Structure formats: C-alpha cells, structure tokens
Amino acid sequence: MIRLKKNIAVSDTGFVFDPSTGESFTVNETGMKIIGYLKEGKSSEEITSLITQEYNIDPLSFEKYSQDFMDMLKQYDMLEYEKEV
Q: Which residues contact 64 (CB under 8 A, 6 or more apart)?
C-alpha cells in the first residue's frame, strides 16, 4: 500500500511541504484530493474510482494523470510503502 509520509504538511490552498527536506510545491484541487485520499490510506483503485465519479472522467484518462502525479510525489520522496497483510 502506498501512503503519503506522515510528516508531509498540506495546506487548504494546496501548498505541500516536506519539513525533512525543505521541499515544497503547490497542487491543484485534484492533487489535493489525491493527497487527502493517500493520507486516508485509500488504494490506487479506490482513488481512481472516487475521482472519476466525482469529476465524471473516464478511468483511463485519470490513470495517466494519476501516474504522473504519483511519480512526482515519488521524485520528491513523499511516499512510503507498507506491506499489505
């Protein structure tokens, strides 16, 4: 399971900050939702389902965006991986 690291701070305006590295950036509304779902421990499949229903987009279109966004979070070392039991 992929989760956002616990120390990552996210403001209501989309400002994302990693206090351990000092890295920061801003995300749009969809990015904020994805980050929120990651913090809640939602799976990739659950996130895809929730976002595609809310924004009425097809899953294939969203998966491309989602993969790019997850790659960016990985590049900033903001994700942690938990083994599923």
A: none
Geometric angle at alpha carbon 82, from 32 and 72, rounded to 5°: 40
Give one DSSP letter per residue of the chain, joined into a string: -EEE-TT-EE-TTSEEE-TTT--EEE--HHHHHHHHHHHTT--HHHHHHHHHHHHT--HHHHHHHHHHHHHHHHHTT-EEE----
Q: Determine if residue 41 is left, alpha or beta; phi over 0 gives left, psi from -120 to 50 gives alpha, anything else beta.
A: left
Tens digit of pLDDT per residue, the chain (85 long)?
Answer: 888 898 999 999 999 999 998 989 999 999 999 999 998 889 889 999 999 999 999 989 898 889 999 999 999 889 988 775 5
Structural domains of the chain, with CATH: 2-81 (1.10.10)
Q: Residue holding tokens 């039991």?
A: 85
